[in-house]
Automatic annotation (TrEMBL):
<keyword id="KW-0067">ATP-binding</keyword>
<dbReference type="InterPro" id="IPR023865">
    <property type="entry name" value="Aliphatic_acid_kinase_CS"/>
</dbReference>
<dbReference type="GO" id="GO:0047761">
    <property type="term" value="F:butyrate kinase activity"/>
</dbReference>
<dbReference type="Pfam" id="PF00871">
    <property type="entry name" value="Acetate_kinase"/>
</dbReference>
<comment type="similarity">
    <text>Belongs to the acetokinase family.</text>
</comment>
<dbReference type="GO" id="GO:0005737">
    <property type="term" value="C:cytoplasm"/>
</dbReference>
<keyword id="KW-0418">Kinase</keyword>
<dbReference type="GO" id="GO:0008776">
    <property type="term" value="F:acetate kinase activity"/>
</dbReference>
<dbReference type="InterPro" id="IPR000890">
    <property type="entry name" value="Aliphatic_acid_kin_short-chain"/>
</dbReference>
<dbReference type="GO" id="GO:0006083">
    <property type="term" value="P:acetate metabolic process"/>
</dbReference>
<protein>
    <recommendedName>
        <fullName>Probable butyrate kinase</fullName>
        <ecNumber>2.7.2.7</ecNumber>
    </recommendedName>
</protein>
<keyword id="KW-0963">Cytoplasm</keyword>
<dbReference type="InterPro" id="IPR011245">
    <property type="entry name" value="Butyrate_kin"/>
</dbReference>
<keyword id="KW-0547">Nucleotide-binding</keyword>
<dbReference type="InterPro" id="IPR043129">
    <property type="entry name" value="ATPase_NBD"/>
</dbReference>
<keyword id="KW-0808">Transferase</keyword>
<dbReference type="GO" id="GO:0005524">
    <property type="term" value="F:ATP binding"/>
</dbReference>
Length: 353
């Protein structure tokens, strides 16, 4: 059984073809940041990304008639339980509307269905960004009309929890962890009994990242919104897409920034270290949620390959718990496995409504 996996990220789209568990081909399609700037919203990138994937399919001589299932990274839909879902018309409508906000993963279901409908292939998603296991006390903010919402890189966070439990022969129901997914956006989650009981919303809170502002001084944000300098759409893009390292250093490429640091760029060094500092501080906050009962701190995502970043975080947080490194992410394999469990009738797909 062949499975096609599609995983849209903020500046790239990962695609892979598997036959059962065997990887046939896997690629990360990079999208030019200047080209992405031209779009006012994530949804407007649909044609650009779909065309890039169709080109990849053609270049790799993939016969879509042989595909048993397409599985995509889930987006900002309404809050759902963890699990594998059929991408139905109701979900597509919510993805188009952006009911939970804007995120590159919103394109996953739309692109998957565009391909799947043409060849009569079922499309699934697994542990979308909207997975909500948050405790009620964590939902309260300083304004009742602005509750905190559970939105995170749940797919990789959950994959890391499964992996740690499997490798250490621990039942997930007895497992407390802090997991920091560090990529284009950064999610730091408190895991209690295998569930994400608290997490910063990577689009709106927590550490700044390669392209997101994270938490900001709220009164200064109000001033900026009413300064007359920026439109509504421009302000949204400043916060998600053009914030963080992009705003400070005009790039979201951590490798490029580390090269600048090596060449003596003091500003790049300070900004990079500030991001690591904020990640470590957020880990400390989530450790407090778990009252210090933390089996391990897991560092994952693309930024976990950075030795410089990891050293700073370890120096600040290793007193809490041992550090476990899962650099990159198991997202593609996790998506594949979710589809295979459905194809093998191990689990039934959940229906979004």
């Amino acid at each position: 059984m062949k499975v096609l996996v599609i995983n849209p990220g903020s500046t790239s789209t990962k695609v892979a073809l598997y036959e059962e568990e065997r990887e046939i081909v896997k690629t990360e399609i990079a999208h030019d940041i200047e080209a992405l700037k031209k779009y006012k919203s994530i949804i407007e990138q649909f044609d650009l990304r779909l065309n890039a994937i169709n080109d990849w399919i053609e270049q790799n001589n993939i016969n879509l008639k042989e595909i048993f299932a397409i599985v995509v990274r889930g987006g900002l839909i309404k809050p759902v339980q963890s699990g594998t879902y059929l991408v139905n018309d109701i979900m597509l409508e919510d993805l188009r509307k952006g009911v939970g906000g804007e995120h590159a993963s919103n394109l996953g279901g739309l692109i998957g269905r565009a391909i799947g409908d043409k060849y009569n292939i079922p499309v699934y998603t697994l542990d979308p960004v909207a997975v909500d296991e948050m405790e009620d006390v964590a939902r309260i903010s300083g304004l009742p009309e602005l509750p905190r919402k559970s939105q995170s890189h749940a797919l990789n966070i959950k994959a890391c929890v499964h992996r740690y439990a499997r490798e250490n022969s621990i039942n997930e129901e007895n497992l407390n962890l802090v997991v920091a997914h560090m990529g284009g956006g950064i999610s730091v989650a408190a895991i209690k009994g295998g569930k994400i009981v608290d997490v910063n919303n990577a689009n709106q809170m927590g550490p700044f990242s390669p392209e997101r502002t994270g938490s900001l001084p709220s009164m200064k944000v109000v001033d900026l919104c009413y300064s007359g300098k920026y439109s509504f759409d421009e302000m949204k893009k400043k916060v998600v897409g053009m914030g963080g390292m992009v705003a400070h250093l005009r790039t979201n490429d951590a490798k490029e920034i580390e090269r600048r640091i090596q060449n003596g760029d003091k500003k790049a060094k300070l900004v990079f270290e500030a991001m690591a500092y904020q990640i470590a501080k957020e880990i400390g906050r989530m450790a407090a949620v778990l009252k210090g009962d933390v089996k391990s701190i897991i560092l994952t995502g693309g930024l976990a390959y950075s030795k410089r970043l990891i050293e700073i975080i370890i120096d600040m947080t290793s007193f809490i718990a041992p550090i476990t490194l899962y650099p990159g992410g198991d997202e593609m394999e996790a998506l594949r496995d979710g589809a295979l469990r459905v194809l093998r009738n191990i689990e039934k797909p959940k229906i979004y409504s």
